[in-house]
């Protein structure tokens, strides 16, 4: 695995172009139908003006019936075109938002991490809110075009009646859009900052939830709360500032639109009094002046939505275009082959060397928590090979030469804080429904009492993060999932810290029996697991300082005895 060169960044504009191109057909139909809707809405006051002109010349029931039929046809066109047009656009919008959510989530969940510089809570916000706001462009463009159609039809209709009225609509529309486009830039800048601050606050919440138990343990929950309160207040203040700008934008748009409508109405009234236009044309002009308020409002709001969509797309580009931490190789390990670390130097590790043969059960007693964490990070391939010295070999091949899929199939590292998902006990043990060795894993992890406790057994519902399970139950459930996967090499980090001594003893014995002839490495200070292992490696000062069976080390090494004896 080698660190790749950074590719050319994908911009927010490129993401928007992709969304537009992918939904061109739906947008074309949506634009057509929404254009028909706006044309029908515009035709209504025009038809009223023509009806007035017609009935004033030819008074009769026939003329009235014809007028009513024409209005009914316009109303039907307006209703059906709106219904089907919005259905097409909203379906395309929802589908596109789903596509981007999946893309962002895939980047966050893929085995090789990406250099995003973002926390998980921020990525979650991008995968939800920003994906939705980016997909809004699918609706924005057709609505923008259809509103433009309404404004043009209005200008042409009024221009036929009076050139002055037509020019008034065109000049007024251009002036309104020019003023609002300047304001929309400020909205975009504020929205971009608001999204970033909300994402940071979300990331802080995710961190607090995952670390709530240890925070309570050393009394740091109050300081953590104050930290979140500060971030939340910053996000709130920014949201208020954006809301003020949005309010000013909406108020300005409404005021300018009302001024234009009033100007059209007054000008039409003056020309009617002067005899330049007829009574029917006056009715049409007044009706269009009232109608044009809505498409002008919609038309004037579109720049704001475009800017917001652009800002969200740029935030998605931070995730989608981020390069992977490392580029996997293509080799696959041969058989089991065991595990070897040769001269590894990283973090607290100093020239770490050890070899675990195929089928061996080895325990690592790490005196420092940081040393254990760094070792787990190396074995889990969370650290790129060029970030540490030395070589890690899996099945006889350097880790850098293996494909990520091969590493994940061959080597499973189960951290002490493994996630528990919303679902059931069964889906947590076997997420892929691969028919793995669930009964054996449940028994070996001593999860049998949890299964027997509930009427639904393995189908008992589990809440997000295992909120309805105790700490020991969550830990045993995580262990059962790791055992059910049955990898060639299994690495466990403190798998029994939340269970009692009797259960720990049983788990240690079951683990040795279930993993017989399979390579197993447990990083732990548990006397029961240390005693069940074939041999114990003592990790102190970043290197292996002693190696023997647990009982021999208890007899010969006083430091070891003080560290692990309970």
UniProtKB/TrEMBL annotation:
The chain crosses the membrane at residues 26-52, 64-82, 140-160, 166-183. Its main location: membrane. SUPFAM superfamilies: ABC transporter transmembrane region, P-loop containing nucleoside triphosphate hydrolases. Residues 325-566 form the ABC transporter domain. Keywords: Membrane, Transmembrane, Transmembrane helix. Pfam families: ABC_membrane, ABC_tran. Residues 28-302 form the ABC transmembrane type-1 domain. It is a multi-pass membrane protein. It is found in: Cell membrane. Coiled coil: none annotated. GO terms for cellular component: plasma membrane. Gene3D superfamilies: ABC transporter type 1, transmembrane domain, P-loop containing nucleotide triphosphate hydrolases. The keyword Transmembrane applies. GO terms for molecular function: ABC-type oligopeptide transporter activity; ATP binding; ATP hydrolysis activity. The keyword Transmembrane helix applies. PANTHER family: ATP-BINDING CASSETTE SUB-FAMILY B MEMBER 10, MITOCHONDRIAL, ATP-DEPENDENT PERMEASE MDL1, MITOCHONDRIAL. This is ABC transporter.
